Amino acid sequence: MPPLWATDKKILLGVSGGIAAYKTAELVRAWIKQGYQVETILTDAAARLVSPLTLSTLAKRRAWRDCDLLSDEHGWKIPHITLSEWADVLVVAPCTANALRAAAAGDSSTLLGATLLACKSPQLFFPAMNSNMWANPATKANARTLEERGHRVIDPDSGPLACGYEGAGRLPSTEAILDETWFSLCPIRDFAGKKVLVTAGPTHEYIDPVRFISNPSTGKMGYAIASEARYRGAEVVLVSGPAALRPPSGVRLVSVTSAEEMKEACLSESPGSDVIVMAAAVGDYRARARSVQKIKRAASRSLTLELEQNDDIARAIGERKAGGQILAGFAAETENIRENALRKLDAKNLDLVVANDVSGAETGFASDSNSVEIYLAPALGQPPKRISGDKWEVASGILDIISNVTE
Question: Residues 99, 129: contact at Cβ < 8 Å?
């Protein structure tokens, strides 16, 4: 699901003639499924690689071609002007080396080039080409020119290329393009210039090489907070336990397994962070002695495990909290929600605590929605706030509160 502020938007997709043009059908389908309106412009080369009929069928709108640049079919509706005024964002994917050159040079000889010149909305370019072409100084200079004008050029992915080479030059995944589009559509940048550290997911505390103690956390809440902070302009570091989620684009991921590893990562990253959000469901206990070999089934039909407490990461960071840092914790509770949350707020030197009732199926672990009560430290002089909705909405609400606190 897109963030709340990214819904009901109009996307203009420019497709240039790279082999990755065939992937744009999946991209258009994803945008339409999320409720966007999509218009497409294909260069003549692109139209030989992906059918205009395919894209127009998916978008439920005509696919525009270079031959429409000087067409009188639409009378006063000049295509490159009407399309540029209509779009909330213009995405060029794939963007060949030639399309990148033409855009940097202000070449208006094609419908796509003329539309780029006329468009005042955010422009995103996703280069896809041979790795040597991408590394060429001329291509890099064209990319820098566009960035200096305020546009965004997203580095291609690395991997095997259609030409037989392997290296940087692949069109990013559909999910990554969606992420970057949302970033460009975000209406506020209240976290620009700030570093935000977010923890997410469960931890695994191994008993032996094949068994561990954990919890049902999926990391969805923490990943949503990390994504939303990045959309709002922050430099984001996401310290994540094992989670089957795609890392958000533009976010630096630090993968950990155990609570001890998460503590080390957090203590390393926290000194330079302006905001720290401890959304991970960290295991409170670990096995006192981990077996080197798999524990075999015993005839006694029982097994006794001796556990010891893990260090409290939020408390450790709270003890080291610098002036001006904001530290937010989560309290996943099944009873006495308010009392337990307020106890954590005070004991861990938090600025706010997000109290989350995890006893229900709709707002507990692994759900797509959440309902939380947020308590702020007494010094901030603000009453508790309740936020309910999908996890994107809750993430946005939490960051709204943090933003107000830091003003």
Answer: no
Angle between helices 220-231 and 391-406 (to 10 degrees): 50
- Long-range contacts, stretch 318-322, CB < 8 angstroms, 24+ apart: 318/348, 318/349, 318/350, 319/349, 320/267, 320/270, 320/271, 321/349, 322/271
Catalytic one among 67, 95, 119, 163? 163
In a domain, 190, yes or no: no
CA dist., res. 62 & res. 47, Å (int): 13
Buried b (16+ CB within 10 A) or exposed e, 239-250: bbbbbeeebbbb
Q: Are residues 24 and 168 in the same domain?
A: yes
pLDDT for residue 57 = 96
| Residues facing residue 371 across a β-bridge | 388
Q: What is the pLDDT of residues 233-264, one digit of tens each?
A: 999 999 999 999 999 899 999 999 999 999 99
Active site residue 186: no
Contact indicator for 294, 207 with CB cutoff of 8 Å: no
- pLDDT tens column, 386-397: 999 989 899 999
Domain match, 116 and 205 both: no
Q: Which two tokens stand for residue 376?
A: 């702020």
Q: Do the domain assignments include residue 177?
A: yes
384 residue type, one letter = P
> By CB neighbour count within 10 A (0-12 exposed, 13-18 middle, 19+ buried), where does 261 fall?
middle
Let me know the angle formed at the C-alpha of 113 by 109 and 114, rounded to the nearest 5 degrees: 80
Q: CATH code at 401?
A: 3.40.50.10300
Decide which of 185, 218, 241 is a domain's last residue.
185
Based on the domain organization, do 259 and 121 belong to the same domain?
A: no
Does 20 share its domain with 130? yes
CATH number for the domain that contains residue 158: 3.40.50.1950
Q: Per the omega criterion (within 30 degrees of 0), is the bond before 137 cis?
A: no
Residue 4 confidence (pLDDT):
73
Which residue in the block uniquely carries the two structure tokens 């203009």? 12
Distance of alpha carbon 21 from alpha carbon 229, whole angstroms: 31
